[in-house]
Amino acid sequence: MTTTPTLDTLKASLEAALGEQIQSIKNELGELTVTVKAAGYEAAAKTLRDHPELAFEQLVDLCGLDYSDYGNGASPVAEGPRFGVVSHLLSISKNQRLRLKVLCPDDELPLVASVTPIWNSANWFEREAFDLYGIIFEGHEDLRRILTDYGFIGHPMRKDFPTSGNVEMRYDADAKRVIYQPVTIEPREITPRVIREDNYGGL
């Protein structure tokens, strides 16, 4: 994919401003994706916001990633860290966008710095990534579940999370409260019935 002069200029500005913090820069879907090292993630985010040639004042979106079994093992990403975080940034003053990616170094305890002090719009996005993927955002002042309830076990967007979940809840009339219990659904595979046109309707 060829880069436009605007993207070429942005790429040069990123390389000059971030230097060795950059792991890679790619042009994907007409937008630059810059991957930075986890150790320098917070500093890189501040630079992206404050550098006069970049000026990414707004964080539009932030989400977690689970690269396990990515591309059925065909991608080199599958051999690296499992979890990552992607943010979409917008510079209104420069009329440009950027995708910022960071990979969590430890699969057992996926952790990166919080960017909420830099862009306060990251607050609920980071809580969502924590809830759904179990990614810890160090420095977040209120990191707790936001979509699942307090009795939920696990992180439902992880690729190894069971389809039926780990626990189920129901109202107990005797106890007069909601209780949690192990899942009682039996896992089964449903194969759809295939109808062939030449035999349709018994013809």
Q: Mind explaining what this structure looks like?
A:
By secondary structure, this protein is an alpha/beta fold. 18% of the residues lie in helices and 28% in strands. It has three helices and nine strands; from the N terminus they run αββαββββαβββ. The protein is globular.
SSE arrangement:
Layout: H1 5-18, E1 22-28, E2 31-36, H2 41-50, E3 58-66, E4 83-91, E5 96-103, E6 111-113, H3 122-133, E7 136-138, E8 167-172, E9 177-182
Parallel strand pairs: 2-5, 6-7
Antiparallel strand pairs: 1-2, 3-4, 4-5, 8-9
CATH superfamily: NADH:ubiquinone oxidoreductase Nqo5 subunit
Number of domains: 1
- CATH topology category name: Beta Polymerase, domain 2
What gyration radius follows from the Cα positions, in whole Å? 22 Å
Q: Strands of the largest sheet, in order across it?
A: 1-2-5-4-3
CATH architecture: 2-Layer Sandwich
- Taking the alpha carbons of the first and last residues, their distance comes to 53 Å
In helices, the fraction of residues equals 10-25%
Low-confidence stretches: none
State the CATH class: Alpha Beta
Instruction: Find the structural class using helix and strand composition.
Output: alpha/beta
Number of strands: 9
Major β-sheet profile: 5 strands, mixed
How big a fraction of the residues is strand? 25-35%
Q: So what's the overall shape?
A: globular
Order of helices and strands: HEEHEEEEHEEE
**How many helical elements?**
3
Mean pLDDT: 88
